[in-house]
């Protein structure tokens, strides 16, 4: 009978040592903000005060945000629909490729547009959020779209349904 790779007493001890040295599980979602203009202290403070979120970083340009996403590997990337003079639509796939498959890419827009929402989702965004300048509502939508709560629908359905757009 062949011996299974990774079996035996030595493997068990090694695995136990590895598990002991592993970093503790994160309990807060790390959010990278790629927004222009600056999101303001109010949004950053609201993220930091929320028990499930923390602001991992902030970039004011898509070109600046991409290396940050690669380095930080956040749980959520919040992309402003228009960052500087560029539209985020062409960058969604780049951010998705730079991050792990578990990272949620959310597009934030001040303009309600079904076409823009659908195009964002088609290009790989996990959600499309409207920014109504109510920071607490925005933070709640980020948590819902990140799928943190059991039984939460997929991010795109949650976001679009909340805006009255059929998914």
Describe the structure.
The protein has 167 residues and is of the alpha/beta class. The chain has one domain: Rossmann fold (3-Layer(aba) Sandwich), CATH 3.40.50.2300. 41% of the residues lie in helices and 19% in strands. The protein has seven helices and seven strands, in the order H-E-H-E-H-E-E-E-H-E-H-E-H-H. The chain has a five-stranded parallel beta sheet with strand order 2-1-3-6-7, sandwiched between helices. A two-stranded antiparallel sheet has the order 4-5. Helix 5 links the parallel strand 6 and strand 7 (127-130). The chain is globular and about 30 Å long. The protein starts with 8 loop residues before the first helix and ends in a 5-residue tail after the last helix. Residues 1-24 and 149-167 have low confidence and may be disordered.
User: What is the CATH topology?
Assistant: Rossmann fold
Q: Give me the side-by-side strand order of the main sheet.
A: 2-1-3-6-7
User: For this structure, what is the CATH class?
Assistant: Alpha Beta
Content-based structural category: alpha/beta
Provide the helix percentage: 40-55%
Using only C-alpha atoms, the radius of gyration works out to 19 Å
Mean pLDDT: 74
- The H-and-E topology, N to C, reads as HEHEHEEEHEHEHH
Determine the strand fraction and express it as a percent band: 15-25%
Number of strands: 7
According to CATH, the homologous superfamily is Response regulator
Q: Which runs of at least 5 residues are low in confidence (pLDDT < 50)? A: 1-24, 149-167
Which overall shape is indicated by the principal axes computed on the Cα atoms? globular
Number of helices: 7
What is the oligomeric state here?
A: single chain
Question: How widely separated are the two ends?
Answer: 54 Å
């Amino acid at each position: 009978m062949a011996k299974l790779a990774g079996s035996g007493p030595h493997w068990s001890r090694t695995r136990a040592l590895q598990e002991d040295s592993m970093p503790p599980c994160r309990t807060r979602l790390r959010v990278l903000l790629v927004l222009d203009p600056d999101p303001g202290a109010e949004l950053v403070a609201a993220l930091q005060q929320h028990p499930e979120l923390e602001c991992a970083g902030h970039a004011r340009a898509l070109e600046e945000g991409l290396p940050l996403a690669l380095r930080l590997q956040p749980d959520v990337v919040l992309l402003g629909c228009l960052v500087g003079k560029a539209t985020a639509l062409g960058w969604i796939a780049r951010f998705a490729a730079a991050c792990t498959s578990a990272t949620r890419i959310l597009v934030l827009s001040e303009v309600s547009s079904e076409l823009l929402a659908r195009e964002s989702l088609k290009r790989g965004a996990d959600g499309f959020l409207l920014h109504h300048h109510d920071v607490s509502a925005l933070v709640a939508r980020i948590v819902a779209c990140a799928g943190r709560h059991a039984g939460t629908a997929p991010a795109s359905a949650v976001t679009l349904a909340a805006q009255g757009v059929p998914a």
